Amino acid sequence: MQAARSDKKTLILVMLFITPLLFVPQSFASGTTNVNTFTGSASSITVFSDGNNTSGALQLDLERNVTFQDASFVIEGQSAAPTPGSVWINSTSNDTLWTYSGVGYGDLAHQNTFQTGLAHDSIQLNNSSSMPSPILLPKNATLQSSSANITYSPQIDGQYIQVGAVQHMELGDSNGDGLADAFVFSTSNATTGVNTGFAVVESNQTSMQYNLSAWTSTCINSDQMRIADMNNDSYDDVVTFSAGSSMMCIHHYNASSMTYDAHFSVNITSSPIDVQLADMNDDGYPDFISIHGYFSGGFVSLNVYNGSSGATRLADDINIYRWNFWDGQTRLRSLRVDDFFNRNQTMIIVSDAWNDATEITYDTQTSQLNSNIQKFRNLSLDSVMGDFDNDGDIDFLTPKETESVIVLNNGTSWNQVPLFDVLETLNGTFADHDNDGSMSLLVPDPQFSDGNPSTIEGEIGFRSITPTGLGSPSLSPLTPYSGPRDIQVSDVDGDGLVEQFVLAGEVLQGVFIGGWHNLSLDTDVDGDDDLWTSGYSSTTMSHIGVLTITDSEDVIRDSVSPFLPAYPGISDGYGIEMVTNMMSLSSNSNGTANFTDLHIAYDIEFQVKTSAGIIGSLSNSLNQQMLPGAGVFTITLPVETTKEGQFDATSLSMNYTLGAPNLALPPTPILSVQTLTENGVTIEWQALSEFGSDIQEFQVFRSISSAYDFTSPHDVVVGQNTYSDSDVAIGSTYGYVIRSLHSFGVASNFSQPLVVTIPNPPAPAAASNVQILDLDLATASAPMKVTWEASVDAGVEEYRIYVATTDLDGTQSTNTLNPDKNYDLDGIVYQPVSTVTPSVTEVEISQTSAYTNQGQTFASESIQDGQQYWVAVAAIDVYGNATLPLPHAGPTTAFNNTYITSQLELTLSSGPEEATEHVLESNNPLSLSVHAHYINDDQEIVAIENAQLEMTLTYGSESLVLSGQSDSTGHWVAVDVEDLHDSTIPQSLLDFSATADGVVNIEVAMAAIEIASTQPYSAASTSTSMGTAITVELAGPESPVDMDINDAIDINVTLTASDAVNPAHQNSLEGTTILWEAYNETSQDAAMNGSETLSQGKIRLASSFEDMSRIEFTVDPGNRMMFGTTTYTLILNEYDVPVQNNETDVVEEEWAPTSIQTATVACESPTILTNKQTVDDPIECIVDNPNPFPINVVISITSSPSLFKTPGAIDIAANETSSISFVPKYEEALWDRQKDVDVEKEIAIQILTSSPDYDIAGEPVLDNTVITWTASLHVEEPVAEPEEKSSSNTTLYTGIGAVVVLLAIVGYVILNRRASAAFEDEAFYDEEPDNVEQEVLDLPEGKPLDAFEDKTISEEPEVIERPGDALISEVDDSEGDVVETSVQDAEEDSTEEEQEDDGITVDEYGTEWYEDELGTWWYREAGAEDWSEYNE
Questions:
Q1: 1116-1150 burial string, b = 16+ CB within 10 Å, else e?
Q2: Residue 1419: what pLDDT?
Q3: Quick count: other Cβ atoms within 10 Å of Cβ 281?
Q4: Which of 392, 268, 291 lies closest to 349 in space, CA to CA?
Q5: What does the alpha-carbon distance between residue 1203 and residue 166 come to, in Å, rounded to a whole number?
Q6: How far is CA 438 from CA 128, 472, 478, in A?
Q7: Which of 92, 460, 774, 1326 is most buried, taking the most CB atoms under 10 A from its CB?
Q8: Which residues of 760-773 are buried (b: 16+ CB within 10 A; e: fewer)?
Q9: Which SS3 state, helix, strand or coil, does residue 1048 take?
Q10: pLDDT by residue (tens digit) across 688-741?
Q11: 3-state DSSP percent of the chain in helix, strand and coil, to 5
Q12: DSSP 1301-1346
């Protein structure tokens, strides 16, 4: 039966092949037939594809039993139509006939990839040009449009690091990685948490990201910061200080802990205006350069620093004078230190209140500072410095009120270039901010803040600058962040483009770091940029964004289209010819360009004729699909695409002749799993098209742990190649077998079985943002709290919390959740401390998890203060599943947040030992120390270490602020000196100690200590006060004093301050009252008393003390505290009538002084007309001898330069006076440059006082003082009438004559009294004649001798009362006639002296000659008015 069926099938097949041959049309016999329409006689077909399923729209009607000689059609892609992406046209046997899917081809009619096949390309740019991957385009394409985006990610991304309240910013390198860091300084505890402190916005060399370091506490009163490598370890250190303070607080960088050490302090010259750091002595350590004298007396000080010992010493000071030296020392304003002339020499440049600048260098051989006498102008505190002409040296730009000035460095001096621009330069800088080779002036302008950081206020204006001027301000200022206050630049990554460090922000400040980049695209590599952009680039700052080039105007299309047909192309196996297009990208910095969103739309036609591989061509494929018999059958050319789109098939051409191919059998299904979840399984097999058009259904056979029943299918699938089974149980295993059924009962073979096991559902998403927080037990019920954000999945049944004292991070460990829902982490199994419902997202905890480790169980423990804790949270579903590893947090330290009550104990030790209270006395020690502590629960005193302390001493209108911190014992010694002359004590405090009844208030404040890892300490303060005191010595004659015949004495009693160094103490004693009481030998009560007022350090007592034997002197201190010798007793000897003969053997001891007082100088304050230079110009002075014995006085001028001649030495009799003159040195050229009008000036002088007759300890006595005079200019006025001058001279001569006569009378009376009394001690009344030196007048060049007039003193000389004057009877009025006659005689004598020879001689030629007191000869030609100096 089976054999009969087989023979019958064979017969049918033979007849099917033979029958068409018997009925072949005649047209076939003669040649080939052409077919040019698709199925349905269509000349073209539009093929639509959804991108997921195979399209069957492309169909051909084929004549059976023929052989195709050739066949082709055209694929048209339209740019206006949606692209189908990559396209495959297959045969019915799934062989590819034609495809547009080559690597880098992109989508049909839409190029959107690079040659690499990727839709994006990354190009590394290093301040240069580079080529992205080429773009392929069909050679015969007609380009319609183009678009693309190129984003630029620089090596250093624009970033903003939030800081807080910042006073200022400096650049340096904290971590030694060679990259610039921004040091920020703040005095806000809300920002720092450590009161005054600094932090570093620090670079990361790997990520090129910046982060804010921890804050470092510094001296609490600091308000300035400088950066330098103080110990030469290649890490920058930090120096902070308070403006005007001499204490420098130094923090060294600790490379081991990568933090800054606590500060130690050094002292420099007091009261600095500004301080800068630079290595001036070439020892490798930065030194302290400071300027002083804001109001007057300007000078520069250099304190060299030894980085190995941490010690400073004063190297040198140098006075800075004004532009005109005679104006004295200047008022300094600014300090700059750099290698200004680019010759490897660090130089100091300072400027004063008049914007005049002085250059200063340091000579390491002589250890001296030297100033350049050639000053230059127009340098101020507002000047901006930088090398804006690119010649290697430093230039300046100085703003002024109505203009500006470029101060250009030419390598040796400074050229002034005036500008008409009015500028604001606060925090400005010079920089080539866009790396184009031109310098710009950049100035931040914060403008008005609206308090909203999301809106940008303020800008950084910039304009170009050259050696000849400024460009116009840019109309597009820089806006990196709102409220820019400061800008500094550094090329962090060394790519040639500087990064900008901008201190900015509104409510709180931060640091923006980024460069101004540019990016350009040359689309056709012709050297001209076709697309470009510039700006900041940031992936984290939305208002800046990533720097992007966008082709929105078909620029690529327009530049490529003209060259596309001419470019050589490469054909693939399907007849597609592609052209390679190159482009070039450029930038001004290092970074990565990301080329994305490429889209070039074009119209194109491709011929489908040849095929790659064994098919070879479309005609071969059609012949392989040929069917036997007669008539027409339709074949489908399956079309696959990658996107939903369309294309047209047109221009079909097929030529065939007779032929006979064969059939194919159904394939066996090949099974695979499409999806497998807890809800079911979906299996799939080959596409329906592979099973032919006669497919009817698929039979599904299922097995559950048993054999298959092939007699009864489990299910039937029709019209699809997948099967989904949802009737499953989790954890069960199922097997599947599939076969296909076709027409006429044809069936495929059974597939291989596919076995699957239904899995558990996935664990719910883990909780997020897990945190463990320390709580304040004063307000919370537990010491810690755990919080988290709920899982995003709804299947969470519960949360379990695990707490441990070790890390619970399971990312690198073996971890599971066991059936008991305990967390197993590397064999340690933790039990939960709490289990909560899904709605709970926080829990307070007071204990840790119990756990087991290697079989040993450990109980839960209470949370301990100071211990670190970790937490993990499990989100668990109904199946007991949780996503692993569990999210975790920690460590968090539990500590007590309650403030510890701080206490301060101020210990004051001062004043003499005999003082009953603390007083400020200049010659005695002063010690101030503070003990910071608190009382613990056991009432024990516990020291507070590292407390920031500030002590303020307020005295009068002055104050002294000291800062420090407590040591490990809680102590801080603020002051500890042997006396107030110590260099650490300011002069103002030393002077104040001389104040009568002065009070020094002392306040100490401790800042709160708030450190995250410790219990905080509260702020504390304490105060005290002390008065002022002085130590004195009241002294008089050491030996008893003999009274004269009238029982009279004349003595001096001195009151001397023990502090002989500081003149303020002696001066403060002036006006002190000295009480005296005189006693006789029998009475206990004083018989006489009185008081005298101290003047010039002494009182004089000249009176009669009849029957008195002693006088007791006592200092009346008033409200003032005085120590030392405040009483003195003088023994009086009765007058002893001298023995007339000289035969006594008694040897009388001659009196000798034991101390000497300095002479005093009192001068007139004249106005000198410096342009007239007359003989009236010398400054007249009176020198007073306060001593009862003759003295020698040497007076010298210490001012530099000296404009007056030194008077020299003079001798002055006891208690007498003498006159001196300060004569101008008009030969000095400085006088000719004097232009001041009514300006008061000073002459500093030194007075040396000694005794020519006695050897006194401590002589010569040194004193310094100043003489004032007024500089002005002569203005011509009418000449006064001669009569007035004569009258004035007559009055003067009359006064002098009266004095002479009066002195003569007094002398006569004294001599008569002395002779009548026959005194033994005649020397007591001897008067030494006044030793008045005749002033020598210099003869200025070019001034006639007759212009010199005698210098006369308009004021009468002070009459000094001599010993015994009080005892002299008044002169009878009848003596007035004698006085008048003497005056007339004096006038006559004066006239005769004027008529005497004036020393002028005339030679035979009529030339007058004159020799001055200096030995210089002068001459005047006959008829000439002016004298000239004679030089051989």
A1: ebeebbbbbebebebebeebeeeeeeeeeeeeeee
A2: 78
A3: 17
A4: 291
A5: 51
A6: 18, 14, 17
A7: 460
A8: eeebbebbeebebe
A9: strand
A10: 988 888 888 999 999 987 788 877 889 999 999 999 999 998 878 999 999 888
A11: 10, 40, 50
A12: HHHHHHHHHHHHHHHHHT-S-GGGG--PPP-PPPPPPP--TT--GG
CA angle, 687 as apex, 684 and 689 as ends, to 5°?
A: 155
CA distance 102 to 577: 11
> Which tokens sit at 313?
């010493």
pLDDT beyond 70 at 745: no
Q: How would you label 1383-1405 residue by residue, b for 16+ Cβ within 10 Å and e otherwise?
A: beebbeeeeeeeeeeeeeeeeee
Rounded to whole angstroms, how far apart are CA atoms 912 and 923? 9
CB 518 within 8 A of CB 434: yes
Q: What SS3 class is residue 1405?
A: coil
Closest to 1183 measured CA to CA, from 1096, 1055, 1297: 1096
* Whether the Cβ atoms of residue 652 and residue 37 lie closer than 8 Å to each other: yes
Distance of alpha carbon 1240 from alpha carbon 1272, whole angstroms: 9
Tokens found for residue 703: 């097995």
- Judge whether 491 and 432 are in contact, CB under 8 Å: no
B/e letters for 910-941, b = 16+ CB within 10 Å, e = fewer, are bbeeebeebbbbbbbbbebbbbbbbeeeeeee
Predicted pLDDT at 1150? 65
Q: Which residue has the tokens 């920020």?
A: 184
Least confident range from 197-206, 573-582, 1403-1412: namely 1403-1412
- The encoded tokens of residue 1324 equal 């007591």
Query: What percent of the chain clears pLDDT 90, i.e. is strictly above it?
Result: 57
CA dihedral (372, 377, 383, 385) positive or negative: negative
Contact between 962 and 989 under an 8 Å Cβ cutoff? The reply is no
> Could you give the CA distance from residue 1361 to residue 357 in angstroms, rounded to a whole number?
55
Closest C-alpha to 465, from 520, 517, 397: 397
List all residues 6 or more positions away from 1120 whose beta carbon is below 8 Å from its beta carbon: 996, 997, 1029, 1030
Q: Is the dihedral of CA 1271, 1274, 1280, 1282 positive or negative?
A: positive
State the DSSP string of 298-322. Answer: -EEEEEEEETTTTEEEEEEEEE-B-
- Whether the link from the prior residue into 885 is cis, omega within 30° of 0, is yes
- 815-817 and 1261-1272 strand pairing: unpaired
List residues bridging with 739 in a β-sheet. Answer: 699
Alpha-carbon Rg for the chain in angstroms:
55
Rounded CA-CA distance 214/196 in Å is 13
Q: Which of 223-237, 892-906, 1149-1163, 1409-1423 has the weakest average pLDDT?
A: 1409-1423
- Looking at residue 659, its pLDDT comes to 59
Residue 256, classified by CB atoms within 10 Å of its CB into exposed (0-12), middle (13-18) or buried (19+), is exposed
Q: Which residues pair with 760 in a beta bridge?
A: none
Amino acid 731 reads: G
Residue 1071 amino acid letter:
G
Instruction: Using alpha carbons, list the distances in angstroms from residue 1146 to 1040, 1143, 1149.
Output: 17, 9, 9
- The b/e string for 729-739 (b: 16+ C-beta within 10 A; e otherwise) is eeeeebbbbbb
pTM attached to this predicted model: 0.49
- 852: its two tokens: 């087991």
Q: What is the C-alpha to C-alpha distance for residues 1057 and 249, in angstroms, rounded to an integer?
A: 38
- Look up residue 790 and give its amino acid: A
**What stretch of H or E contains 601?**
strand 590-608
Amino acid identity, position 135: I
Separation CA 73–CA 35 (nearest Å): 11
What Å distances lie between residue 422 and 357, 376, 400, 418, CA to CA?
21, 21, 7, 11
